[in-house]
Design a protein that fits this description.
The chain has 308 residues and is an alpha/beta fold. It is built from 13 helices and 10 strands. It has a single domain, classed as Alpha-Beta Barrel (TIM Barrel). Strands 1-2-3-4-5-8-9-10 form an 8-stranded parallel barrel, surrounded by 6 helices. Strands 6-7 form a two-stranded antiparallel ribbon.
Length: 308
């Protein structure tokens, strides 16, 4: 049996990567959602994105959201910042950390940010210079690490090449994203092996979507290879506006249930996360896509009925 880590860190992306692909919710609802998540034991919450409101209107109020949340000591509140203007807004918002995003495939880079992979990396240089000046840690997102909706399969060597470029720019960690959720464990293993030849495993995270129902299997594969940082979204919120058919990120509740069953510590209360998910989903007029969240709610209803 493979050796599993004793502890993993969860990067909660529901308030950004989740809500940016859902119907618009009010600033007050976003603030309440993040405040609820802050009471669950999570240590990293991605709270907003400073991107063009023309392209991502759901994130237009990120400055207001981050200025209104009740910050809890020990929690990193981060934001996505694709350019200098975004970084400057993140500073105004008091972001503890920022993230930049690139693609391992040319087709996705062109459709997502209208430039080549090499051009996108060049654009990040002034952001990285400012981050160093203000001593703000920068995380790098890398999309399409298994397959691209435009180019097909992404060669693992290409993923490793772009990931290494992001590290060389100054990112402290690279989050490897299966953007369209088509990967299976063997593809993930080959990709991680390739990237790990150039980057230590403790500088890598995984960010898997669940379009084909493989996210948890892929996460388990990553755990067996030493990955200890997992991106997830409460209730499985989100998708990808530039990848048709891509369902939401893997649900935080489902990841927590998996880790709990494997004896891996997270320090996070799964019931409290589920409660936060139900609250925001009520505002969105939908049910959580998390199987664990639905099971928790069903259990609570049964318990209430027994007490009557």
């Amino acid at each position: 049996m493979s050796i599993l880590p004793k502890h993993v860190s969860i990067v909660e992306v529901g308030a950004r990567d989740g809500l940016q692909n859902e119907n618009l919710v009010t600033t007050a609802d976003k603030v309440h959602f993040i405040n609820q998540l802050s009471q669950t034991g999570l240590k990293h919450i991605e709270a907003g994105a400073f991107v063009s409101p023309k392209w991502v209107p759901q994130m237009a109020d990120s400055l207001s959201v981050m200025n209104q949340i009740n910050r809890t000591s020990g929690i990193t509140y981060s934001a996505l910042t694709p350019n200098v203007k975004g970084f400057e807004l993140a500073l105004q918002a008091g972001a503890d950390q920022v993230a930049i995003f690139g693609s391992a495939s040319e087709g996705f880079s062109q459709h997502n940010i209208n430039c080549s992979v090499s051009e996108s990396l060049k654009r990040f240089e002034p952001v990285m210079e400012l981050a160093e000046q203000y001593q703000i840690p920068v995380r790098g997102y890398l999309s399409c690490v298994a397959n691209c909706p435009y180019d097909g399969a992404t060669p693992p060597v290409k993923v490793a090449e772009v990931a290494r470029e992001l590290i060389n720019l100054g990112c402290y960690e690279i989050s490897l994203g299966d953007t369209i959720g088509t990967a299976t464990p063997l593809r993930i293993a080959k990709m991680l092996e390739s990237v790990n030849q150039h980057i230590p495993i403790n500088q890598l995270a995984v960010h898997f979507h669940d379009t084909w129902g493989q996210a948890l299997a892929n996460i388990y594969q990553a755990l067996t290879m030493g990955i200890t940082v997992i991106d997830s979204s409460t209730s499985g919120l989100g998708g990808c506006p530039y990848a048709d058919g891509a369902s939401g990120n893997v649900a935080t509740e489902d990841v927590l249930y998996l880790c709990n069953g494997l004896g891996i510590e997270t320090g996070i209360d799964i019931d409290k996360v589920a409660d936060a998910g139900w609250t925001i989903c009520q505002q969105l007029g939908k049910l959580p896509s998390s199987k664990a969240s639905l099971a928790i709610r069903a259990r609570k209803i049964r318990d209430e009925q027994k007490r009557r």
